[in-house]
Design goal:
Number of strands: 0
Strand content: under 5%
Largest sheet: none
Helix content: over 70%
Radius of gyration: 15 Å
Number of domains: 1
Structural class: mainly alpha
């Protein structure tokens, strides 16, 4: 797998994780209304993974045509 592909996958997974954590109550997987520690942790990890993916994507060498 290329660096570019890994970066795209990480960025997408991190974004999805952060959005799901943020919207947990709205989609019915949260226990109590409001944002709690588990959701904050999920958001933080998702953002970190997304940032890692973007950095990986940016450091990938440009493909020659």
């Amino acid at each position: 797998m290329s660096k570019k592909t890994i970066g795209i996958v990480l960025a997408a997974l991190g974004t999805i994780m952060a959005v799901l954590s943020l919207a947990a109550d709205a989609i019915g997987i949260g226990r109590d209304p409001g944002i709690h520690r588990a959701q904050l942790l999920g958001i933080a990890i998702g953002v970190i993974v997304a940032i890692a993916g973007i950095r990986q994507l940016m450091s990938a060498p440009a493909q020659k045509k």
